[in-house]
Amino acid sequence: MTDRNGQCMCGAVTLSVRDVPRDFGACHCTMCRRWTGSALLAVTVPETSVTWTGTEAIRTIQSSDWAERAWCDRCGTGLWYRVTAEGPHKGNYELPIGLFDDSNGMNMNSEIYIDLKTDAFAYAGERKRYTEVETLALFGIDGGAE
Fold first, then answer.
1. Cα-Cα-Cα-Cα dihedral sign, residues 64, 56, 89, 113
2. Burial 23-41 (b: 16+ CB within 10 A, else e)
3. Rounded to two decimals, what is the model's pTM?
């Protein structure tokens, strides 16, 4: 694990994250694809590991029954996906790895909602791949996609 710093595109919002895991995942759900224009490539970190500055520029939306998304109100950069529902994942941030000043040394180790992935692209290499049903079970969520 490594400490990492980052920011939105315009620099209005910065973050400092302690103990960032080396491994990150890709989410292919419909919401993530619409939000990012592709798959969300993000690393999971506990809420207590992240320090934000420029919070006055952060906007959030409850994007599903169990999670919210945030962005910089000045430049539109996506800042996080975070579980808001009760359970073991509550409060965890999914931080896009593109926010970090340096993401070298990180490794994609999983893909979720793999059955919703568009055939327009594919990531090389072997990793864990979870279908929608498997993803929902993994997160302890009842219901449909996203």
1. positive
2. ebbbbbbebbbebbeebbb
3. 0.92
